[in-house]
Amino acid sequence: MRILTAGESHGEYNLAIIEGFPKGVKIEESFINSELRRRMSGYGRGARMSIEDDKVCIVSGLRNKITLGSPIAVLVKNRDSKISSRKKDNLPALNVPRPSHADLAGAFKYNDKDVRNILERASARETVSRVCTGAICKQFLSQFEIKIAGFTLSVGGVRCTKLPKNISEIRRSTKNSLLNCPDSSAEKKMIKAIDNCRKNKDTLGGVIQIRIEGVSAGIGDFTHFDRRLDARLAYYLMSIPAVKGFEIGLGFEYSRRKGSLSHDSIYYSPRKGFFRKSNNSGGIEGGVSTGEPIVCRIAMKPIATLQKPLDSVNLCSLKQTKAVVERSDTCAIEACGVIAESMSAFVLTELFLDKFGRDSLSDIKSNYRNFLKSRKKRFS
Ligand code: EPS
């Protein structure tokens, strides 16, 4: 399965083409739209989100709401469209790159002194297409009772102390949260930190925890490095704009512990089969799912566009100056969580199809049933 996304931040549309998605899956547009709404919300977003009203239009790949096995194409219209592929716009050239954005690196790469030509595609607006794809993949995964939920673990160093134990707790505890945070007293402090940053024209990042439940053992592969489930998750989650760190299970904490206090001992009972009493591995050993919940975290850096800009250099005059100031968000941690769920859904779907076939949902279901039956016979 492949996704191809296209679209500029202030262009007319964002689109995605999903190739290799199986036939026979019912797709509800309303679910994609609810995921798009989640991506637009969150405390700390800028004025852009009150302009946009992201709604998907599925233009191909389905008949009567059921996938045909052909490429699925989806389209989301940008309300705040300022540039066009067909006619000239009147936007002034932007010649002063923002530190930490793609502006300067992109200007070098594409030999262009107008960084608008870089930022339009480097913008996180593109993640609209990924969330549409993730919402489609989630509808496939739900056929196998695989669930994915993320939550905000910390913002600007303020960390949750009350952590949900499973996905139903994540959903219950984040239901009325403005930051998708399960700990209401930590959330109050996070909101205060965001308000302070907005007042001081600064920005904040944070940490998202993702939990995936219902994945049977045996997804992913150790036989080649690029088929490892943890490597795939890292690749796709690190591709989200502003994500600078990835951990799975104990993550960096492993480096501080002894092996005897790190690894998940193996137990067996006729009722449960093989099981573990801990899940430090985050549900993946040797690049393959163990059957325990998959738990990983990503770190998002503070938004690059500052309203009180940092030092930079004008690409035309080479004079020292301050970076350009563009309208932006103070914190986009909640959106980042939704995008992370979407990328995880894509990775899981892709490796699930690797294992159980690709063409039609009915064949995949019967392969899956046979697999579970045969493992039950041999391992319990
Ligand atoms: C972004 C800058 C802001 C964000 C945008 C990502 O857009 P604008 O410059 O138009 O105010 O709002 O995110 C989105 C538009 C979105 O849908 O998430 C950037 O520079 O990356």
Helix content: 25-40%
CATH architecture designation: 4-Layer Sandwich
Determine the N-to-C terminus distance.
33 Å
Q: Using the coordinates above, name the CATH class.
A: Alpha Beta
Give the number of DSSP strands.
Answer: 17
Q: Which assembly state applies to the chains in this document? A: single chain
What's the short story on this structure?
It is built from ten helices and 17 strands. The chain has 380 residues and is an alpha+beta fold. It has one domain: Chorismate synthase, AroC fold, CATH 3.60.150.10.
Describe the structure.
This protein is of the alpha+beta class and 380 residues long. The protein has a single domain, classed as Chorismate synthase AroC (Chorismate synthase, AroC fold), CATH 3.60.150. It has ten helices and 17 strands. The chain has a five-stranded antiparallel beta sheet with strand order 8-7-9-15-10. Strands 1-2-6-3 form a four-stranded antiparallel beta sheet, covered by helices on one side. Strands 4-5 form a two-stranded antiparallel ribbon. Helix 1 packs antiparallel against helix 9 and helix 3 crosses helix 4. The relative contact order is 0.17. Ligand EPS binds next to loops.
Identify the notable features of this structure and list them briefly:
Chorismate synthase, AroC fold, single chain, globular, 32% helix, five-stranded antiparallel β-sheet, alpha+beta, 380 residues, binds ligand EPS
List the helices and strands and how they pair.
Blueprint: E1 2-6, E2 13-19, H1 29-40, H2 48-51, E3 56-60, E4 62-63, E5 66-67, E6 72-77, H3 103-110, H4 116-122, H5 127-141, E7 147-155, E8 158-159, H6 167-174, H7 184-199, E9 206-213, H8 229-238, E10 243-248, E11 267-269, E12 273-275, E13 284-285, E14 288-289, E15 294-300, E16 311-313, E17 320-322, H9 333-356, H10 361-379
Antiparallel strand pairs: 1-2, 2-6, 3-6, 4-5, 7-8, 7-9, 9-15, 10-15, 11-12, 13-14, 16-17
Helix pairs in contact: 1-5, 1-9, 3-4, 5-9, 8-9
The protein binds ligand EPS.
Ligand EPS is lined by residues 9, 46, 48, 52, 80, 119, 123-125, 128, 305, 326-329, 335.
